[in-house]
Amino acid sequence: MQTAERAGPGSDGPRPTAGGGPDLAPGAGRARGTLLAGRRPGRSSGRWRALSPSSWLPALVALGALSLAWQLVAVHNPTVLPTDTAVLSELWHSPGLFWHDTLVTLQEVAVGLTSSFALAFGLAVAMSYLKVIERAVMPLAVVLNVTPVVALAPGLVVAFGFDLVPRYIVTAVIVFFPFLVNSLVGLRSADPEALEVLRTLHASQFETLVRLRLPSSLPYLFAAARVCLPLSVVGAVVAEMSSSGDAGGLGSLIETASAYSDLARIYAAILVLAALGLALTLAVVVLERRALSWRAPASGS
To answer: Which residue range(s) make up the domain with 240?
Structure first.
């Protein structure tokens, strides 16, 4: 039976243990722990998986098959679909028109989205502290959510005219409920033990909100943003179609092109809207990964 030998003060080598294996020196153990603590095993492998052909090749093949099917239908039925070359030609020859209308739609999305989020988050904070506010506000929010937003647009046009205000309101209404629900659930997802610690330390309600409730709600807020950003583009387009005027916008462009049966311009505007929604979604995903980098990566991700 082996016994552990104690190395003298000047010994630098590993010390044999009862199991026969070398026992690392205290300094080496601390260095090894530091290296392991700074190592993030899932992140670099996740980047390589995203660059591997198995990640992007199926989507590329599906896109090519869709483009081929589109072209075949467009060639044999020109009154149903325009050819992809006609759509790209429309974008190529009228870049200023599409750029101007894209900026108008983006402005409506930005104003409607930010105002809706500010109102929804403020109400969620009040509801997380006072149940009576939740009982008063939540039924009204549900009624607003189940009301078709297309039905609201004509009344808003009559009330506010053919300006951008009805578009802002429609865009804000269509994303209000997801922001409200996710904000409320996120604020209430704070760790109860951490809340008890803050109460023990006599932290104020504002300090509890900033230091605990708000960080706990960030995953829920980003999940709502991934849904609401593309949804806000839909709301802006619906409002533009219902309040066609001189303000412009991609929805107004589609409405005008449909009056002239200009399929190429219609689908060119739809392509720009799809690219806009995709770009906004990717921006949220990138921002979420940076803002929530402190979270432990999920197993298998």
So the answer is: 103-291
